Amino acid sequence: MPRDASPRRYLMCPPHHFAVTYSINPWMNPAKPVDLPLALAQWEDLRDRYTALGHTVSLLDPDPGLPDMVFAANGATVIDGRVLGARFAHQERHGEARAHLDWFRTHGYTDIREPVHINEGEGDFAVTATYLLAGRGFRSSPLSHGEAQEFFGRPVIGLDLVDPLYYHLDTALCVLDDAADEIMYYPDAFSPGSRTVLARLFPDALIAEEPDAAALGLNAVSDGRHVLLPQSAAGLFDSLRDRGFEPLGIDLGELLKGGGSVKCCTQELRV
Ligand code: ARG
């Protein structure tokens, strides 16, 4: 049975100044050149796919001094129109938090919190019907979980990330249906205890295999029906189809050099 899509609002930031000039995750190698026109074309393809699916894409102005700004998912978390700003772990990205806050302030958002604790937005926060799943271990502080629970009034489930390749929650877990509690994830990215928590809360989750996780296949975006994901995560396509989803593969190979893919480039504005 095919699923129902619901229209979404996304915030994206064009990679006009994208570059890998420092390394804050194992994917980033400053010695490997980035093809900027190709990165831009790949990003535009993603944006165009969203609009073709009927979603709304708002744009954040890129800052020449912030080469990772294309990874807009990290800049805030928005649920029910309430905005929890980000506070980045690495100095190289500190300035992005302000750019996001300014955007929300000038776009009609009034319920905005500047966080006390380090959190990298939707990089480490994922929204299901019941929970706010929250990663920790590499970037977001465990203290940010309590801050988010208090601000959003949603039960936060803290999950320990243990493999530096999967340094953000959204590199290892994706919400497939946020009207239900349906997710896909890569168990080996999590501590044994967190794996058990995930298995308890999400017994029917789609479990990803290593090659698909390593292609950043879990760094995907679902509208409830269409799942945009890196095309090289070939092993996930049939499993998604079996569940009634429509997988749509995309090549964001240049952005992968920064350690991000579809989801990293996409912040969801939940009204
Ligand atoms: N280079 C960026 C960093 O390491 C990539 C962020 C990817 N974003 C994400 N949502 N996982 O911070």
Structure characterization notes:
It is a single chain. With 271 residues, this protein is an alpha/beta fold. It has a single domain (9-268), classed as L-arginine/glycine Amidinotransferase, Chain A (5-stranded Propeller). Helix content is 25%, strand content 21%. It is built from 7 helices and 15 strands. It has helices at residues 36-52, 94-105, 142-152, 192-201, 210-214, 235-242, 253-256, and strands spanning 9-12, 56-59, 76-79, 82-85, 112-113, 125-127, 132-136, 156-160, 173-177, 182-185, 206-207, 221-222, 226-230, 246-250, 267-268. The strands form 5 sheets. A 3-stranded mixed beta sheet has the order 2-1-15, covered by helices on one side. It starts with 8 loop residues before the first strand and ends with a strand. 45% of the residues are buried. The model has no long low-confidence stretch (mean pLDDT 98). Bound molecules: arginine. Arginine binds next to loops.
Number of helices: 7
Largest sheet, in brief, is:
3 strands, mixed
The CA-CA distance between the termini, in Å, is 28 Å
CATH architecture: 5-stranded Propeller
Report the β-strand fraction as a percent range.
Answer: 15-25%
Order of helices and strands: EHEEEHEEEHEEEHEHEEHEHE
Query: What is the CATH domain class?
Result: Alpha Beta
- Considering DSSP H and I runs of 4 or more, what fraction of the residues is helical? 10-25%
The unreliable regions are none
**Overall spatial form:** globular
Write down how many β-strands occur, each being a DSSP E stretch of 2 or more residues. 15
Question: How many structural domains?
Answer: 1
The fold-level CATH name is L-arginine/glycine Amidinotransferase, Chain A
Mean residue pLDDT: 98
Q: Determine the CATH superfamily.
A: L-arginine/glycine Amidinotransferase, Chain A
| Rg result | 17 Å
Strand order of the largest sheet: 2-1-15
Structural class given helices, strands, pairing?
Answer: alpha/beta
Organism: Streptomyces scopuliridis RB72
Keywords: Transferase
GO molecular function, one term: transferase activity
Protein name: Amidinotransferase
